[in-house]
Structures are given as structure tokens and as C-alpha cells.
Design goal:
The complex is a heterodimer of chains A (84) and B (149).
Chain A lengths: L2 E6 L2 H5 L2 H14 L6 E6 L10 E5 L2 E5 L4 H14 L1
Parallel strand pairs in A: 1-2
Antiparallel strand pairs in A: 1-3, 3-4
Chain B lengths: L1 E6 L8 H10 L3 E5 L1 H11 L4 E3 L10 E4 L2 E5 L2 H9 L17 H11 L2 E6 L3 H16 L3 E6 L1
Parallel strand pairs in B: 1-2, 1-6, 2-5, 6-7
Antiparallel strand pairs in B: 3-4, 4-5
Helix pairs in contact in B: 3-4, 3-5
The chains are: A alpha+beta (84), B alpha/beta (149).
Chain lengths: 84, 149
């Protein structure tokens, strides 16, 4: 089953650095050749706005991440989903 | 050509449906500016917003599409970029074609219009931007109709 990863790119998340999170995920998908297993999408609102970071949704589960933690989040949580 | 721009939501949520029906009922090219606005419309029509992530810029969120709507963008950051950048165009790097930004897409559509309907809702910041935008559109000889909700 393919894994769904969404990044909120709405006003609040954009100001929290969503652009960097998207770029980081796109780069990792490219370098790890995951474009078949993983679908990266944007959303203008994932419904759980936070001023603590960017809202991302992994297979429907929301989480708030700091742009600096985007790679670590991807390599641990997202890769675990992809490999399971 | 007419362009209808929806940005809100309405101050009074009991007017949401009236506002969306007005938007969908007007003939022309439709623009939705705002995450909450896009979510409300998406829930109403059942259409999904598909975002072109490659169109994002460090200063402007990306744009998207949905059924029956020409352009979907984030709200105030994008509207502000449209108003402040009205007389300049983003420089294209030769040999490096990339997706136009959300602000450029919106400006292009608005500049093609003869008549622009602005269906605007909540927020003083949003209203101020809509007033500034309407002045720019009128200065180019376009007919502008503002409906406040």
C-alpha cells in the first residue's frame, strides 16, 4: 500500500516554514527513489493549526514538526511506514 | 471575460452557503484565496484541492486547482503579494522554466478580466487588501463589483 504524506502550506504553516519542509521531503523522495511508494501532497489546511511548527499528516495522522526536524521525521517515521 | 474571486469566510457563518452559491452561480473564471475558504468550498462541492507544490516560493505558498475553479491559493500572504507586486513581474531565469508563483497566476487572471467580482468575508487585513486591489483594477479600466459577506 502506498503511503500518504501531506504538508500544510496554508498561511500559518507557511510562516512556520512549510516551504522548507516540502523542499526537504521532495529531495528525500528523489534521493531515496520513493515516488512510487510515497505520495506527497499539499493542503491549505489540515485542521490542527499550531504556532509550534508545520502540520504534516502521515497516513491521516497529524503531527507538528519544526522545519529543522523534517529530515529526521522523514527518515524515522515516514521510512518506517514505507518499509512496513 | 469575468473573474470571480472568493475570499473569506463570511463574518456570520450562517451566510456560508449563500456566499458559496453566489460564487458558483456567477459565470466566469473562479479564484479562491484562502485556506478556510477553500476547505468550505471543498466540503460544499465535494471537490478536492490539488496543490502544485513546485509552484511554492520562500515568500508565497503554492497554488492549486479544484473542479470548477481556475485557481486556488492561500489568502492574505498571496493577496498582499498580488497587490504589492501589481506593477512588477517575477523575473524568469533563462533556460530554467518553473511553475509561475501563486501571486503571478492570480495577477495574470485578474489582468485578463473585463469585470471582477470580489466576494469578500471576514478580517480587516483581507478587506484592506481587497480595497487596494479594487483600486488597482479600476485604474486599469476594469469594472469591479465588491460583495461583502
Amino acid at each position: 500500500m502506498s503511503v500518504s504524506l501531506k504538508v500544510c502550506v496554508g498561511s500559518s504553516c507557511h510562516l512556520q516554514g512549510s516551504e522548507k519542509v516540502v523542499e526537504c521531503f521532495q529531495e528525500l523522495i528523489r534521493t531515496q527513489n520513493l515516488d512510487v511508494e510515497l505520495e506527497l501532497k499539499g493542503s491549505f489546511c489540515l485542521g490542527t493549526c499550531s504556532n509550534q511548527g508545520v502540520v504534516v499528516s502521515l497516513n491521516g495522522e497529524n503531527e507538528v514538526i519544526q522545519p529543522a526536524r523534517a529530515e529526521a521525521f522523514f527518515l524515522s517515521k515516514v521510512m518506517t511506514m514505507v518499509n512496513s | 471575460m469575468d473573474v470571480i474571486l472568493l475570499t473569506g469566510p463570511p463574518e456570520d457563518s450562517s451566510r456560508d452557503e449563500e456566499w458559496l452559491i453566489r460564487f458558483l452561480g456567477l459565470p466566469g473564471k473562479r479564484i479562491v484565496a484562502g485556506g478556510t475558504t477553500a476547505s468550505l468550498l471543498s466540503r460544499y462541492t465535494g471537490g478536492e484541492v490539488v496543490i502544485r507544490l513546485d509552484s511554492q516560493r520562500p515568500e508565497i505558498p503554492p497554488w492549486g486547482r479544484m473542479a470548477g475553479v481556475e485557481l486556488v491559493t492561500e489568502g492574505v500572504i498571496t493577496l498582499e503579494a498580488v497587490v504589492n507586486g501589481w506593477n512588477k513581474k517575477e523575473e524568469s531565469v533563462k533556460g530554467c522554466e518553473r511553475e509561475p508563483s501563486a501571486a503571478d497566476k492570480m495577477s495574470d487572471l485578474l489582468k485578463q478580466a473585463d469585470t471582477v467580482f470580489l466576494l469578500t468575508g471576514l478580517g480587516p487585513r483581507r478587506r484592506e487588501l481587497i480595497v487596494r486591489l479594487s483600486r488597482l483594477l479600476r485604474s486599469e479600466g476594469k469594472k469591479v463589483i465588491i460583495n461583502r459577506f
